[in-house]
Design a protein that fits this description.
Elements lengths: L5 E6 L12 E5 L5 E5 L5 E6 L11 E4 L2 E4 L1
Antiparallel strand pairs: 1-4, 2-3, 2-5, 5-6
Length: about 70
């Protein structure tokens, strides 16, 4: 495997910019797989992963409330 302890942080907010607490979120990252969880008190969710050994880009896609974003 590649490096460990890599993190991508997400923050889920509504249209007024207010945090969305206890919302289901799913994060997928190619061959690493998919993890699910819920947002915290500030709408935050941290995805921690071990990078693959192969070089190249890794798209991390978060989905919550029917909306997806790629980082």
């Amino acid at each position: 495997p590649g490096s460990t302890g890599n993190r991508v942080e997400f923050r889920l907010v509504n249209s007024a910019g207010n945090p969305m607490v206890n919302q289901a979120i799913s994060v997928a990252a190619g061959s690493i797989g998919t993890m699910t969880g819920t947002t915290g008190l500030n709408g935050e969710y941290t995805y921690t992963y071990t990078a693959p050994a192969a070089l190249g880009a890794l798209d991390v896609v978060a989905t919550a409330g029917g909306v997806s974003r790629t980082q």
